[in-house]
Amino acid sequence: MPGSGNTAIVQISQAANKFRSSIVLQYENKFIDVKSILGLYTTLVDKGVYDLHVHGPDAEEAKKTLAELFEQHNLKVRIVEDE
């Protein structure tokens, strides 16, 4: 992910770390802890659609915040809702 990608990774990870909920990004067969900058760096690419799994006491707020950040950086994300 060129140039602005590092900004996206840092902003997404910092935002995720503000929440108590578990936040996991799924891309193909990989599951990455969104609070891990290294995990995001090795997974986040310009193309592709990510599934975001959020579970915990502040999950709704985390989903909203992260969805906005992904959109801001032109990354496609689907929020996986509990069934």
Automatic annotation (TrEMBL):
It comes from the Bacteria. It comes from Paenibacillus thermoaerophilus. It holds the Pfam family PTS-HPr. Residues 11-71 form the HPr domain. InterPro entries: HPr-like, HPr-like_sf. This is HPr family phosphocarrier protein.
